[in-house]
Amino acid sequence: MPDMRFAPPNPIRIADRSAGLNAVSVRGHNERLVLSLLLRHGGMSRMALGEKSGLSAQTVSVIVRSMEKEGLIASGEAQKGRVGPPTIPVSLNADGVSAVGISVGFRKTDVVLIDFLGHVTASAELAHETLGYHHVHPQIFATVSGLIRALPKRKQDRIAGIGLALPDGFEDSPELAQLQGQLETLGLEVFVQNDVTSAAAGESMFGAARPLENYLFFYVGAHVHSRLILNHHILRSGVNASYDVGLLELERRLGSNAATSAEFWKTALGPATDAPVQAWIEDCGALIQDKAAQANQFVQVDTVVVSSYLPRPLIEGLCDTLGALKGVVGEVAQAPKAVGAASLAFSSRFLI
Amino acid sequence: MNIYPGLARPCPSWQKKGERVKDPAMRTVLCFGDSNTYGQIPGRGPLDRFGWDQRWPGVMQAELGPGWHIIEEGLSGRTTVRDDPIEGEHKNGRRYLKPCLQSHAPVDLVILMLGTNDLKRRFSQPASEVAMGIGCLVHDTKELMPGRGGHVPEIMIVAPPPMLEDLREWASIFDGAPEKSHRLGLEFEVMADSLEVHFFDAATVCACDPADGFHLGASAHAALGQALAREVQAIGWPAD
User: Fold this and answer.
1) How many A/B residue pairs have CB atoms within 8 Å?
2) Which residue in B67, B189, B190 is closest to A85 by CB distance?
3) Is B178 a domain residue?
4) pLDDT given at position A14
5) B196–A contact, CB cutoff 8 A
6) How far is B80 from chain A, CA to nearest CA, in Å?
7) Residue A187 Rama label (left phi>0; alpha psi -120 to 50; beta)
8) Which residues of B touch A46 (CB under 8 A)?
9) How far does A95 lie from chain B, in Å, by closest CA?
10) Looking at CA atoms only, how far is residue B109 from chain A in angstroms?
């Protein structure tokens, strides 16, 4: 039996520092655990990381140092505590890696570039010529490559991938196949996910749902959609979970066809629209309460996260109508589905 | 004038006369090294030594403050695991590490800063073999378990800064060493990663002094002591 103590060193964590992000294609579970904790809790000391992860101080030290060199983690300044030695917080390096997200909506397609903390650093909107969920806008590829080209070279080498969020029942079409083929020519991995599930993932990863293990997620767009999140896993039913009390219904009541545009809401909140909007909020709230009551027949979920690109006061108003349920306004305000799509690249490569 | 700079160490405030209670939260750090831990002044004789407060362990002590007990164990000419046929077997770090650890146990952290002397011509070793030697010391420490409650203490490998090209009268003894010394940082880090111990590359904060090309000057000791104090703090220590 050879003495393994004196076998050659096997440094699985030392990446080739001369290469870009692609050298680090597969990460070990412990690295993903550390990155996930930093994403969920923000900056924390190495000791706190050790306590939360169950890893030894030395293992945390090795992981933090190697990921610091790879640019995924940044060390902060020492902070003096009331008792004990100063602590040095480590956090995710927002600039260290980015991802592209694309979401196909009813009225437009969103393209975003996000940093490691989920902030939108660049974005574009592509209006659909005809309304509907099933359009592959011809400008998507040009827009994505334009956003990437506008980055400094060093950042172009640090894109984790491209997420593509598509609505339910999105039909396979030659245009979609062509788009996926084009995106793959960028040398980046393409991840495809349902759009509402993407939005829930984005909220879980970057937004108000970060500390929540179990909650119901409602996306209020042209239609209203729901998801159940248990133990951080996003679950969906096979049956239709889309409801017609969304913004299309509000538009119908307002006699306007502009309610799904953010521009409309900058000026629209006056006495003329107040009453129908209030009535719509109550209907929407009733739907959410109804669905939550159904879910609670099987598992106890008392928190509801509402995501929308509507102005925050409107969503707060909606959350106030939820009675015993705890309503939480989503924090991913700009293009939540596209941000969630981009987050897929991070979760698949860096997180548990 | 203090003619024994090595004895200039102030009595720590927690060791007041007649007081025998040791602060339970006091952390003990053992600095196991060579002449650059001993504090030998570059370009001078073997007994010319920087004062306690100038040597990196003393600088680190001042930075960390009164909750820490820093023990210096620096021996000029110490190697990782090699008996020196010229200077003597006692320069072999492996022979002395275990008695040294037991003498100071329980220790919370062991800092190993060695490797330069292994590069002497007489040993004909590449940087990777020097890293294997450091690895032996890590294994020996883990086996001995000289930490609190008989556990393995925290262990930190510190790679010495690369040697300079001009080694003056030491050039023949260290023939070929400067080039190898540039690879110690990476080889030590590979070893630290595979053994899951802390690592610090001294080259990131200091360089060797041109007076002899391989010893640390006063400013290098200061920079290293401050940087290591931050590294020690960053490990994270529960207040117990």
Assistant:
1) 81
2) B67
3) yes
4) 56
5) yes
6) 14
7) left
8) 234-236
9) 23
10) 11
Quick check: B64 contacting A, CB < 8 Å?
yes
- Domain annotation for chain A: domains and CATH numbers: 4-92 (1.10.10.10), 97-199+338-350 (3.30.420.40), 208-330 (3.30.420.40)
- Residue A16: pLDDT band (50, 70, 90) is very low
How many independent structural domains does chain B possess?
1
User: φ and ψ at B110, to 5 degrees?
Assistant: -115, 120
Q: How confident is the model at residue A273 (pLDDT cuts 50, 70, 90)?
A: low
Enumerate the residues of chain A whose CB falls inside 8 A of the CB of residue B155: 58
pTM of the model: 0.80
Which residue reads 């020519």 in tokens? A185
Place of tokens 């894109």: A159
ipTM: 0.71
User: What Å distances lie between residue A243 and A216, A291, A311, B75, CA to CA?
Assistant: 15, 11, 21, 77
CA torsion, ordered B168, B174, B180, B181, to nearest 10 deg = -60
Looking at this protein, which amino acid is placed at residue A244?
D
Task: Identify the CATH number of the domain in which residue B189 sits.
Answer: 3.40.50.1110
pLDDT tens figures, B197-223: 999 999 999 999 999 999 999 999 999
Q: Do A46 and B236 touch (CB under 8 A)?
A: yes
Note whether B198 contacts A61, CB cutoff 8 Å.
yes
Give the residue among B213, B181, B196, B202 at the shortest CA–CA distance from B37. B202
B144 touches chain A (CB under 8 A): no
